[in-house]
Design a protein that fits this description.
12 helices, single chain, 6-stranded mixed beta sheet, 443 residues, Immunoglobulin-like, 5-stranded antiparallel beta sheet
Amino acid sequence: MRFLKSFYIHNRFFRYIAFLAACFVLSYWVPILYPIGWVLVFILMALFVFDCYLLYTTPNAIQCERNLPQKLSNSDHNTLTIKLSSKYPFKTGISVIDELPVQFQKRDFEHNIHLQKGIPYQFDYSVRPVERGEYIFGNLNIYASSPFRIVKRRFVFQKDQMVPVYPSIIQMQQYDFLAINNRLSEFGLKKIRRIGHTQEFEQIKEYIKGDDIRTINWKATAKKNQLMVNQYQDEKSQPIYSIIDTGRVMKMPFNGLKLLDYAINATLAFSNVALKRNDKTGMITFSKNIETFVPAVQKISHLNTILEKLYNITTEFTDSDFGLLYAHIKRKVNQRSLLLLYTNFEHISALKRQLPYLLAIAKKHVLVVIFFENTELESLIGTDAEDLQTIYHKTIAEKFSLEKRLMQRELQQYGIQTILTKPESLTINTINKYLEIKARGLL
C-alpha cells in the first residue's frame, strides 16, 4: 500500500501511449509501422520497469523541509522557505505542491525544478493572510521523476503544521525601528512645533534660529557668553487607551481586510511606539458589551499582553452600545487620558445618536474619534460619467463623501479631535495625531 500511495504516472507516459496508438492506426495504411509499433511497446515496457527501479531503489532519496515562522503577520506578505536536496545519482525532476491553509483559497500552488545529487536547493514564496486565527499547512508533497519521465514517486513531508496569524507584527516592527531612530517623518509623519511650556525640562542648549526666545536661559547665557535656551521634552507616563469598536460598522472589508483588523493592526503598532516613548498604554474593546479592558501600563513587556488580547478578539458584529462605553470609562479610567476611539459612521444620523456619549467622554479626557473614508466610493467619484446611471451613482457617492467631511467638522466644533483616514493609512495617521497631541501639550 505504501508503494501504491507513492506511485504516480508521469504526464509524458500518456504522450508515449498516444504516439504508439497513432502508429498502430497508421499501420492500417502503412503495414511496416505495425512491427515497429510492437517493438516500441516492448521498449516502453522495459523503460517503465527500469524507471521504477531507478526511483524506488534509493532509500530516503529526497529530503525536504518547510520553514515557517512562529507567527504569521496579518495583512502582510509573509515569506516562507522550502529547502530540498536529492540523493539520486541522476538529475531529478521535482514538482513541489504545498497544501496551503484553507483560508487562502489557493489550490494551484506548484513549483517545478531540477535537482542534482548533493546540491541543496531553496526557494521562497509569500502568503498574505487577511484573518486572524490558526492556519494549518497540510502535506508538503514532492513528486520526483527520472530523466525518462515515465513514472513519478511521491514523498510526503511535514503534515499538518499549525501557525497562528497575529495582528501585523511586521508593521509594528517597522514603526518600532523608525520611532527609536526618530525617523517617523520618512513615512509621512510630520513634525509638530511645540506650543507653550507644559513639557518636561530636558536640557540647556545653544540658541539656533527658530527657537522660542521666551525659553532663553539668561543665567546660562551669561556664563557661556552666548545665547542659551531651555529645551523641553514631551511629558512621560501619560495614560493612553486604544478603544476599538467591534460592532457591525467595523465589518466592512477593504482590500480583503475588515476595518476591525485595520484598527487592531494600528493599535498594536501605535501601542509599541507609545511605550517606546515612555507613555502608559491600555486597551478597550466593546460592542453591546465591554469585551476587553487592559489597564494602561508603562512596561515594555505590557506589549505582549496587548498583542495576545488583540489576537483573541472575537465578535459577532452586533450594534455597539456607546452608553455602556461611557459608563465603563467613567468607572475604570479615573486619570485624564488620551482615548483613541476606532469606529465608523456612514451616516450623519448615526453620529448624532452617539454624540451625547462622545461629548460626555470628551469632558474629562482627550478624545480622538477615528473613522474611515470609503475608498471604493472615492474611486467611483473619480471615474468619468458616461451615462445617466453613472451620473446617479456618482451623485450618491459624492453625497456620502460629503457627509463624512461634515461629520468630521461637527466633531471638531465640539472640541473633539478627529481622524478621517483611508484604511491603509490608518496607522500612519494615528501615530501622527499622537505626536501632534503630545507636542502641543493637549494632554
